[in-house]
Structure formats: structure tokens, C-alpha cells
Amino acid sequence: MIFKKCDSFYFTFLPLEINRNTLNSYSNQREMQNKITSLFKIKYPIVQGGMIWCSGWELASAVSNAGGLGIIGSGSMYPHILDEHITKCKQATDKPFAVNLPMLYPSIEEHIETIIKHRVPIVFTSAGNPKTYTARLKEHGITVVHVIASSKFAKKAADAGVDAIVAEGFEAGGHNGREETTTLCLIPKIAQEVQIPIIAAGGIGTGKAMLAAMNLGADGVQMGSRFVACEESSAHINFKNRVIQSVEGDTKLTLKDLTPVRLMKNEFYNKIEQSYVEQKDANYRAELLGRGRAKKGMFEGDLVEGELEIGQVASLFDTILPAAEIIKQVIQEFEEAKALQNSERFTF
Amino acid sequence: MIFKKCDSFYFTFLPLEINRNTLNSYSNQREMQNKITSLFKIKYPIVQGGMIWCSGWELASAVSNAGGLGIIGSGSMYPHILDEHITKCKQATDKPFAVNLPMLYPSIEEHIETIIKHRVPIVFTSAGNPKTYTARLKEHGITVVHVIASSKFAKKAADAGVDAIVAEGFEAGGHNGREETTTLCLIPKIAQEVQIPIIAAGGIGTGKAMLAAMNLGADGVQMGSRFVACEESSAHINFKNRVIQSVEGDTKLTLKDLTPVRLMKNEFYNKIEQSYVEQKDANYRAELLGRGRAKKGMFEGDLVEGELEIGQVASLFDTILPAAEIIKQVIQEFEEAKALQNSERFTF
Fold first, then answer.
1. What is the pTM of this model?
2. CATH code given to domain B34-234
């Protein structure tokens, strides 16, 4: 229930007694519910990251059906493909889901039209100025969340009127901030700076990490890597297998002179690194990256020459599971980690 | 109480009934106590990082007197200076304290002699092979802890027989690992791999982060940056002030072709970065670094040309406090964060 905007209305027009009681009752209800589950009308404050080539309608609907928030990653979709995915997602779930909208996307206007046409309830914007589309989306009753990697941009997003932010640390897969602030340092800082709900991302794939992030001040979490290697993910099976076999140190933040991105190390990554050793300039790397590298790696399964975006946390899990099982395990582990706080480890 | 070694003795020589009861009682006591407070015989599982130029006897004794574990950072001390600091620390506290021993230190044999002579109860080794000195130190009844930044080295340390490890994430100040694994990803992985107690380090300066790290599987925490800007720290007041004024993004991991180190950005840091832009080789940077840069910055207060080692977490605090007050605040915040888990944020 989004009640905040109605407060003044109730105060103005209702008789005082009803007014107070109503407000208290609504207010208690609101206060006694997690801000993220309340904002998105979902069961668990777990958001599935909107990831190019991995998160189509199958993953998004599976996550939403399991009580989290599924996101269709529109950045790798032609407009008619996004239309199709939204249509199928609506058929596959009656729960809320979202679309992730990278603002660099060339046909963004068509994407926005499609989102509005389908009355998608929630949009996650990223890689751009939150002022550009927030008001327009909200005019259509859409809840808007913006992805940031620093408290400076968190404040900008809050000022632009977004309903929540995803705060993404250095350990996250894919594109990342220039400050290299880790989730452990980022979340408490952002909690100091903004009042809107915070979804922590980067390094989170387990219930323990979910509890840790929420203890730092997050209201919920976003998990990307864990859902890449998930049955309903549209990632190629080669990539899923590579992810669950990965070990510590297998990913690295690179291409910092273009847009910093965390990749799984492979032959393509080695070529990037070699280009730095050989002191090639940024243009050389932009050409090397070219077009379609991410599709080649993540969707077509070329583990040698493809771009494989994944987070550090990949080294922590070793099985491909259905999305519902992942969410079940995460919540169970979250509760177990809370209960462990009565153990000797926390006794001093 | 270190009881493990005595178990077989009791089993052998005591009458069965007493034996069982005694063991159960000791065992319960041990099980119901945090492994780090039990191992070091301290009140809180908070270790002050052993930091060159910042952690002499004044800081170490203040932390130990406040219920944490104070560490004298011997890496910046001539042998006779370490002798003096240990002597003064023993005069200033009757609580356990430790000495940090970077194994790269040229006069390490003299340092070890001094440590043994003074019966220092605990030694933290770093920057070297844990096999080299662990057995020798333990022969003298010294508890040995080794600092690592990856689970590969955590296993090596456990195999070398150390009593605990400090697992230090990418966000930590000073020297750091090459894998760039953040604390959030490192601690759960290490908890999967080794059985010995884990002290989490990197990004921890508050009670919330302490709780988060312990949720991830750590038995205790080490805080460095927070104690740099502390009244009893021997850091220059200029450096302390710079630390508490720092903002997000003010630190960076650099000198990766020498030994990766996290520094506060300043003119010296800019020169390093410029050397990469100008494609100078590693020798140029080694010369640029030269000798005495860290002393110049952290001890003599030259904020322009000095090397200022500090962690990302520095941007989170803004006052110079006595060590005892820091520990009090951290424990209070830890308890508050635990209590917050009954709030609406955790209700779903």
C-alpha cells in the first residue's frame, strides 16, 4: 500500500476522530511491514537483477511467482521482443514484476511506450540521469527504482523522485561505478544520506549476505549472479556451468577507461588486459569489445571470445536450481542466520 | 580459556565421574563463548589492526584496556623501538595485547627475539608464508594469527597451524590481495573452507558492519581505519583530520604492479596515476614510492607528498574519539542493530 501521498488528503477532509484512527491503523500496518515488500506488493524483499541476455519472461515470472520481484532485462531486447516478453510474463504470473530500462538503450522511447501500454507496474532505470524519465513513468502510475553505485547519485535519484534505489557495490557483475565502493561500505553511507528505501546489490547470493546487507541499512536485496545460473535464466548452459564452476578471483572489474564492467576471466578478458600491457588506447579496446560480445558469451555460450558479465559472489554456489528453490533457500538461510545470533559466536 | 590441549590429559588422569562433569562444564562454558574472545582472553571480539606509524603502545594498550585486542604494529619500528613499545604497553595494561609482524621486515629475527623475551601472548603475522615462523612462535606458547586475503591462503595458514586468521577484503586500507575479493564475498567463502576462527577485516568500522561480518561467518572483526583517527593513535593530527573529513571515493587501490595498496588520493597518488597514463614502467613507480613515503604522510602529516594508507570505510565517521569510546559505540551499535531485527524492516 502506498499511503504516503494520501496523508494530507485524509487530514484535510476526514472528521478528526476517524482521521486519527484511520491514520494510526494504516500507519501501524505500514510501519510493521518491510518497505520493499510493501512498495512492490511482494512477499520477500528479494529482487532479481535485470540482466541482459539472462532475464527474460521465464526468469522474471518464476521469481515473481516465488514471492520475489522478477525483472525483465530490456537492454538486450528489440522493442517487439520486449513486447513479447511482457505479454508472456503477464500470462505466466499474476504477481507484480518489473522491467529494467538501461537509459543508454537506443530505442528507449519505444520501450517506454511498450511498458506504459502493458501497464507494467514497476520500472528499474539505470545508466543515465534519473530525472529524464521518472516523472513521466510516475504519471502513468509506475513505481520507479533507479540503480546507483554512490551516495552522490543516490541523492540525485531521491531528488528526482524515484520510489527506491538499488545501491550496487564493486563486487557486482556487469557495469559498475567508478568509485569502486564495496557493498559493505556503500550501504551504510547511503542509509545516512537518503530516506527512500534501499535495495542492496553486489555480493549478495545467500541468506547470510541478505541478512548482512539488511543489518547495514538495506530494506531489501537484489541478486543477479545467483539467478544467472538458475533453470529459468535464458543464459546459455555453457555460461551457467562456467558460473557454478567459478572460483575466487575468477572475475575482475575491467575496461575502466570505457565503462567499468566486471567480467569472468577468459580469452576475451585476457585480450583486454594484454591491450593495457601493450599500452593500446581506449579506442582499440572499444573496437575489441565491438558489438555483440555479451550476446556471444552469455546467450550463445562462447566462453572463449564472449563477454561474460558476472559478480564475485558466483564462486559461492555450485548448482543450477529453479528460481523458486533459490528464493526458498535464501529465506531459510536468512532465518537460520538470524537464529544463529543466539549461539556462542554472538555471546560475549 | 584454552582448553583444547588439556582434554586428553583430563580424560587420562581424572576419575571418570569428575572427568565427565568437569569436561561438560568446561565444554559448555567454552561452547557458549565466542571463539575470538576465548582464544585471546578478551571481552569483545574486536581487534585493532596493526598499522605502521599509527599503532604504538598507546593505541594498543587503550584498545586492550577497553576490552578489545590492541596490536602494536612493528613494521615501522626499529628493534629497540619495538622493545620500548612492548615494555610501555605492558606497563599500561594488564590485558592481553599482540604484535603485528610483517614478514617482509628486514630485522624480523630481532623482532621475534624481542617478542619472545617479553612473552607477548599473541602475534599477528602478515605478508609472507605462515609456515616460516608459526611453529617457532607456538613453541613459546604464543598464539599465532595470520592475515590473508583469499581462501587459498586461508587454507595454507590453517595447514601451517595458526590459531586464527584475519580475512581482509578489497575495501581495507594499506596492502591488499590481488584477487580484489570484497569482505562480503570473502568471509562466507573462507567460512566454507577452513575450520579455524575467522576475524573479518576491511570495511568494518561500526557495530552494524561488525554484525554483518559475523552474520557472514566471522567470529570477530578487525578495525584499522577507525582506530587511525583515534586519540591514542600515533598518526599525525593532519592525517587524522584528513581521514575524518574523507568522502566516498577518496581512496583507491593502486600500485598493482608492485604490491597493491589502498591509499587516500592526494598529490602523491596523482603522480602514481599519471605514471600509468604516461606508460612508465614499474621501476619508475618503485623509485617514486622510494623510502619513507608512509612515514612522511601518516606520521609526519605531509598530506600532499606522503603515502596515506586508509580504508574505504573512512568516509563513514567524522570524529576523533578515544579508543575506549569507539569500542563502546561499536558494541552499542552492534546490539542496536541486533535489536532492529525485530523491526518492520525484517518483517515479511
1. 0.91
2. 3.20.20.70
